[in-house]
Inverse folding.
């Protein structure tokens, strides 16, 4: 009875079926972006398809119960094949052991690991993150504080060239470590990796401007405003309608909408590096741009994979088993 069960579990046909099913799920997990914001999924697929895919686990394929089940069955299948061939073919046993370790690592990572995201404004801290797409709150064994964030853009565009964060890890009130992270250069603490994923503005920027009297060449007034504020100069009102840290290669600039009572609105670009640009003949006052201060949040991806060491161990055994198979003499049977 036991031999028949072992024979069925060690079936090559079962191995092929399991590998095909795992490959199909892996393709789905590759085609569909994993662990994204549910709002993004709804925008792409619509709400009915989103609900169907979410129930099937397509948005977190590698943690779904049926993917883990298939890996478990494949691990049992490999273990049965190993027992059937032990100890006659050592190389095959080593290769099977390596595959078993790799699948075991994947299962451990799926069951006990997590992949979460969090947005932390500069100057603030958090000790939890949200797992997508379930939005389950995952508490961390430490606190992450965002001390600074910097972004640089390609000249003349708003495309980010590089963005990085300065993070500090705290346990209680004690600062444990501080490190700068960039894309693909994570901070690692207690087996948890913290990646730089994205960024975004927290609020409207603070824009510092000043009013200059062209007759006396003196600064009359300074302003620190946001996109919701207005500047009144005599009968005219100015409102910010847009801004850029580098407008078409000319440096920081804002676009103002000038409104005069009874007249049509006019749109005027104000460049920090070219303060006279946009001034019209007859204007007594000149508005100059001093600074654009943007406040950002840093978007972090936080990953824990306790099975990664098993996967690496499996890779090592796979290489050793392959080398052993090629380097040891083959046994020949008499004819």
């Amino acid at each position: 009875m036991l031999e028949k069960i072992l024979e069925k579990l060690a079936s090559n046909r079962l191995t092929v079926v399991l590998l095909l099913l795992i490959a199909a799920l892996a393709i789905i997990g590759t085609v569909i972006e994993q662990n994204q914001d549910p709002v993004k999924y709804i925008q792409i697929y619509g709400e009915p398809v989103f609900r169907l895919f979410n129930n099937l686990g397509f948005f977190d394929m590698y943690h779904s119960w049926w993917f883990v089940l298939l890996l478990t069955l494949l691990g049992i299948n490999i273990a049965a094949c190993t027992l059937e061939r032990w100890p006659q073919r050592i190389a095959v046993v080593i290769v099977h052991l390596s595959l078993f370790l790799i699948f075991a690592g994947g299962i451990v990572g799926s069951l006990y690991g997590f992949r979460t995201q969090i947005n932390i404004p500069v100057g603030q801290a958090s000790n939890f993150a949200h797992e997508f797409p379930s939005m389950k709150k995952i508490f961390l064994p430490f606190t992450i504080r965002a001390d600074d964030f910097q972004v640089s853009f390609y000249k003349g565009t708003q495309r980010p060239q590089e963005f990085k964060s300065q993070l500090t890890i705290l346990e209680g009130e004690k600062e444990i470590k501080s490190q700068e992270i960039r894309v693909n250069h994570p901070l690692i603490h207690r087996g948890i990796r913290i990646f730089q994923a994205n960024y975004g503005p927290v609020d409207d920027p603070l824009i510092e401007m000043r009013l200059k009297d062209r007759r006396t060449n003196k600064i009359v007034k300074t302003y620190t405003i946001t996109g919701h504020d207005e500047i009144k100069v005599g009968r005219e009102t100015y409102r910010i309608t847009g801004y850029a840290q580098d407008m078409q290669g000319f440096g920081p600039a804002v676009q103002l909408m000038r409104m005069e009572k009874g007249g049509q609105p006019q749109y005027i670009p104000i460049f920090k590096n070219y303060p006279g640009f946009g001034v019209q003949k007859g204007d007594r006052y000149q508005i100059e741009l001093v600074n654009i201060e943007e406040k950002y949040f840093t978007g972090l991806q936080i990953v824990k994979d306790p099975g990664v060491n098993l996967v690496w161990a499996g890779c090592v055994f796979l290489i050793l088993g392959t080398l052993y198979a090629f380097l040891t003499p083959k046994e020949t049977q008499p004819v």
